[in-house]
Amino acid sequence: MKLRTLTAISALIAAAALTAGCARKDAAEPAESAAAPPQASPAEEAALQPAADYAAIASAAVADPARLDSDRLDDERRKPAAALEFFQIAPGMSVFEIEAGAGWYTELLSHAVGSDGAIVMQNPEGFLPFVSEQINARLADGRLANVRQSISNFDALDAADASADLVTWVQGPHELYFRPDDGSSLGDPSASIAEIHRITKPGGAFVVIDHSALAGAPETTGHDFHRIDRAIVVALAEAAGFRLEAESDFLANSDDPRTIPVFDPAIRGYTDQFALRFRKPTDAERRGDLYEEEIRAAQLEDQRQRDEREAAEERETSSLIGRRK
Fold it and tell me: Which CATH architecture has domain 42-281?
């Protein structure tokens, strides 16, 4: 059994070596016979470029004279420079903004991606009575030409597969557990995150900001207090295939007890909020993970067999000692 297991490991290593050899051979062929390299996505290209000056991008967006006055009132507490830096936004990106609300972040994102980028401003239909007037004012006369509206539930997003470099959801995942008075739903939790994974490009990011609940708080906290335990978001995202890449406390507030509704006058507008950035693995990363899992499985099987042999040898030794006595 040990020999067969080690043979399997050797075969995997040999296959990797053969693949590398083929790659070297292909590289030696005339240039005209080689396939054209795949075009990098804006997200991948951004990763290869020097870090953008996110503070400058945010400052330019904040200084835009066409911004709504209501936006300016929120600049200090919402910290746009820190937000854009955490989003890792870059010119030319395609961004799908879930639950955009009245569009405070839409304005910043639109400026950041520029004329070569695109923003989808999504809201559920039930939210429109509360935000449509502000949205119409923000988008009037084509002032944000790279933005389009999308009306849908969270589990039926209006976007093609692998079309977004970045998906954002600010102060929203708790809505997955909100139940309107008519008993309807804004989207099934698992199906909604699966939709986000579907529309995100391999290598793209999914960024979440939401109101913090106490660790271990139940899902119903999303309905009762409009808060959510970050662990619930992490579990949903990782189950869908995302990897947690980074988190930030730029909107943390230790004075928030996290046990009262976010609309309570004592804390409204200043809740403790967590920020998480997830990454959708590339195809190459997924293939690498599968290879590593096969190697680990073979190693574990080899260890299990050694343990069994050692245990058998100990039993046999104990039996011999017993017979000699």
Answer: 3-Layer(aba) Sandwich (3.40)
